[in-house]
């Protein structure tokens, strides 16, 4: 961008019509549209899709050629011989993309507040001139050394490299969309490659294992393959996640489940504190709690669960009140293997009619209503599918626990952690619940400020499998799995950024899609998918989106909040290619 973009050697025509949507250009001679070489660079003034610059009265303008045609009275004279020997006077249509300071072309104006006037000169745009704009997109003036990486090259000019700042791509979340075979996987690998080049950190939720090619690279941490080498311990699930897994009905089962969890949490507090507390004493049938000087009352424990039937409420309530913050926290820090037995113990009357200081006796009506919940709880804990994913029979400290592995990765010097879902089954919505729990864990970390100084990009491949999902059956009211939606809406300022890859943007919640500041859009054929992108990305205009059905493999439109103009580019092949090739039919 050091040269003057308005040199006469690059002149091709004059503006002869101006509208709010586009401007038209008159070419004084068809000779100006022919290819030529100047200062070692080849220029093509007469190709649709090429970039041009326009010299206005107060601003310069960058535009893209949309259409070139001959006047009606010259078309009948057109032939191969006449085109070589005779001058024609074509006209063209140009889309104005951005304006810049006339005397400082590197300074892009915010918004398009003016248009060129009739008679303004049009010049062909060099690759060096436009490359400088790409690097500056999304970069603040005070950031003198932003991390940039090469994403690809312009579709209509392979010599023009598209180098983009990492801030522009991920700073407001990113979505990579397109039909199958359009090149999404290659683009995601290229984006990961850009983060690695700039020593950043990325966590990838890999739905099918196609990014396993990254596992043996020096920048990659040991992959966490769920249901194989890794598990997400149930104590890291929230109480809401447990409710989703167990699906209690609202009137009786949900309150009993909540009480059972509360009782087991109280028991965990007692087990963790009795050795260091002067107010708690462990005895054969439970724990004695000192109420006041000389008075101790029993919390009865039988078979590892709290027995409340006909027992005093006061010692239990005393421990609960003293540890309310921990007990009412969202984590599931208790022995889940005892949950079914504890639910049975909770099926009692709320109060003893003869002594209001005690709980009542067994309530058979509540027990009968909770039978299905008890059976589901036992089935969940003993289900091999869920056990291998959530580690119901394991300790949180066992090797391969996912949150521990994620923390090691965040504290370490590796740049990529792949969380593999390829061995997680599709039954019982295990994938959706697990991905949502991982997202919620990262959401809480971001709220605590863990990513402020070292931002992290969370890639979600096949995002339509996990977003816009909810759990509902005959026992349980609908509950949305919305952790990624919350990350999209609030985590940008916390340093946690999303990059969604999906072939069906229409299946992504509109609220989440609207939070995506950057779109890399590969070929889209379905009109509903196209509409979803158009509605979510305000900078997308109809002229740019009209290219979507005809984009080739690897070609994409890059657009977003930090991009003053849409860019049609061919994404470069990544160094480490994903395993996404289509099997070929062959003769036997």
Automatic annotation (TrEMBL):
InterPro entries: HerA-like (IPR008571), HerA_C (IPR033186), HerA_central (IPR002789), P-loop_NTPase (IPR027417)
Keyword Nucleotide-binding: yes
Domain Helicase HerA-like C-terminal: 448-560
Sorted UniProt keywords: ATP-binding, DNA-binding, Helicase, Hydrolase, Isomerase, Nucleotide-binding
Ranges where the Helicase HerA central domain occurs: 151-296
Single GO molecular function: ATP binding
One Pfam family here: HerA_C
UniProt-listed Gene3D superfamilies: P-loop containing nucleotide triphosphate hydrolases
Protein name: ATP-binding protein
Organism: Butyricimonas virosa
